[in-house]
User: Fold these one by one.
Assistant:
Number 1:
Amino acid sequence: MNTSGTVTQPSAISGRGLFATRPFSSGERIARYAGPLTSIRPTTLDASAPVYGLEVSPGVWLDGSLDDNPSRHANHSCQPNAELVWHGEAEGAWLTAAHPIEPGAEITFDYGFSLAESLFHPCRCGTPECVGRIIARPLRPALRRHLRFSRPRD
Ligand SMILES: [Zn+2]
């Protein structure tokens, strides 16, 4: 039996994803997002670079890219069912259920990208709210206005 509550497997969104193997209630911790802290800013302005860096305080990032962090497979979604919460150095970062999650559901969270970062990272989450780019929820209205303004006119 898998007691961790999650498993990684191929995802329709991108690459491998992180999936629930048991139910989670809203607010419940799902899995730790583990990695060392670093002052080296991860590369996000590059479409080919996977993104595993979490800025935990100004100029300090958690590097989640290592193999012992299966949570790094959690994909972004425009309608996520989880959030990534930093609890300080002692407890670390945790993927936490934002809604009740059923077994088999893919665990997703908002990567919180800026407008500039979003231009390098298309989103294929497939949810009704998808804006086609990985971008922080508060910035989505600005992105929609930008796309409307910049599309070719007929
Ligand atoms: Zn999306």
Number 2:
Amino acid sequence: MNYIVIDLEWNQCPKGKEAEDIHLPFEIIEIGAVKLNSCRKTVAEFHSVIKPQVYHWIHNKTREIIHLDYSHLKEGTLFPDAARQFLQWCGEDYQFCSWGNQDLMELQRNLKYYHLESLLPGPMEYYDVQKLFSLNFEDGKSRKSLEYAIDFLELPKTEYFHQALADARYAAAILKQIEEDCILRNFSIDVYQNPKSKKEEIHIFYDSYEKFISREFDSKEDAIADREVSSTHCPLCHKPAKKKIRWFSVNARRYFSVSVCSEHGHIKGKVRMKKTDEGKFYVEKTLSLIDEKDAKRILEKKELLCAKRRLHRKSIYIDGD
Ligand SMILES: [Zn+2]
């Protein structure tokens, strides 16, 4: 199995968000990638500059960051050709790696724009090097910049950052420093192409937590009412866990709950409501073990929210009186 470390540069609407094409907010203008073999030795590189078809000028913010100008892009390859060449170059047996979780999503969104999504079926497993860096060298939760990680590991800085191939090389250099065990146990999953049916729903078990990705629903209410979505169990022994704090929303997209496993203690449930490009909803749920202090903190959060909402209702009532 090869690792394909990918990095993309993209452009956005030069006239601002109001004028953008909602089906393609970020148009890919450069693909860079490094292929590592199973021993994580670099065996090949890929680079392509892409001729824009949607935004015919580089957004000022983008121009400051990337090292490309528009005349350079005009000489580039059309995205459908570049994408086909790239995926052919990737080969048969590979796993994508990227710094952060955005690149693969934008790659799929750009493919979809050109009706080429079948070239890269999803949901897709990949390795998020930014997350792996944090797990291997820091607290597992922080997300640092590529340059921070290069400095932290005292790796040579020989090229400008924010060029697709240079950034792919940097991310590959970082990936080489991470323990193999840490990599293999901590794959991520991209669900831009989210599960559609019950059969496609995803359960992933990590060491101390588990993740569930639901099929799609017409509304948020339908999603959170689903039996599988609302159920909680212990990420260690997988037995059903009794709810101590029922699901409550902290905002329009996030819900929490606390349950108890008689053997392993408190379990935090977290639900993130996701909206698809087509306006449907699906859920990413994580269940993780927490200590009693954390459980208490969640209870306090819930009580504070309830009090605030009561107050809000009261003030509406008074105003309307
Ligand atoms: Zn348990």
